[in-house]
Design goal:
Layout lengths: L3 E11 L5 E12 L4 E5 L6 H9 L6 E6 L2 E2 L5 H11 E4 L11 H10 L6 H10 L15 H12 L6 E5 L7 H17 L3 E6 L2 H4 L5 E3 H4 L12
Parallel strand pairs: 3-8, 3-9, 6-7, 7-8
Antiparallel strand pairs: 1-2, 1-4, 4-5
Helix pairs in contact: 3-4, 3-5, 4-5, 5-6
């Protein structure tokens, strides 16, 4: 059984004029345990929406999503939150770090919603991403690249089976983008987590042997200008 299996997934939004607009119409998608897949697609093709559905942040109109043997589409919002905390690590494009909390506190807070806080493991993770000397720094005291490393550590805080990465190098220069991508992949391998990364960057996509184009498997048309991703 695949770690992640999607069938007949449909997600719609209200277009600016008030009519429903389908952004995802995905007949089938699957991901095996510990696999590493890069998903490409133009801006507005539904990449972020797909990740949000897989994480249980958004609920689709129809279809089925199974993650680690659990149905996300038949679960309540509270159950989806619990499943996400236990099974999914999410590296957001804009990092989404809590600005009033230190690096260590950001990781510990993620743990609090999952398997419970484990300060030694949180410190180990931050040390592994090169921030062992910045445990008590606030995000604003870090460079953009360092903030991204905190986001990687936080994503792995609950030892997830699946890590979702949404344009994880989009806010970094070329030099930092390469090292950040290598770090994400290394950390997923070390923690036996599957990785589903979405990007439109050819350099990022070229680093993956398993690349899939959302445009070829998504029957929905592109979103209207100004609509949700």
């Amino acid at each position: 059984m695949p770690l992640l299996e999607i069938r007949n997934l449909v997600k719609t939004y209200q277009a600016p004029e008030g009519t429903p607009h389908t952004v995802l119409d995905l007949p089938q998608f699957h991901l095996d345990a510990q696999a590493e897949v890069a998903l490409s697609g133009e801006s507005g093709s539904g990449k972020t929406t797909l990740l949000h559905c897989i994480a249980g942040i958004l609920a689709p109109e129809s279809g089925a999503i199974s993650l680690a043997g659990h149905s996300l589409t038949s679960a309540t919002e509270a159950d989806r939150d619990r499943l996400r905390a236990r099974h999914v690590g999410y590296i957001f494009q804009t990092f989404n770090l809590l600005q009033g909390y230190t690096c260590l506190e950001n990781v510990l807070l993620a743990m609090a919603f999952g398997r419970g806080t484990d300060a030694p493991f949180a410190q180990t993770l931050l040390g592994r991403v090169g921030l062992g000397d910045k445990l008590h720094h606030l995000p604003r005291q870090l460079s953009v690249g360092q903030q991204q490393r905190v986001a990687v550590a936080r994503a792995l805080a609950n030892r997830p089976q699946l890590v979702l990465a949404d344009e994880p190098t989009g806010n970094l220069d070329a030099a930092n983008a390469g090292s950040a991508l290598a770090l994400i992949r290394e950390m997923c391998v070390e923690n036996h987590a599957a990785l589903l990364l979405v990007s439109h960057d050819a350099a990022v996509l070229g680093a993956f042997s398993d690349r899939r184009d959302l445009g070829t498997i998504n029957r929905a048309v592109a979103r209207p200008e100004g609509g949700p991703l």
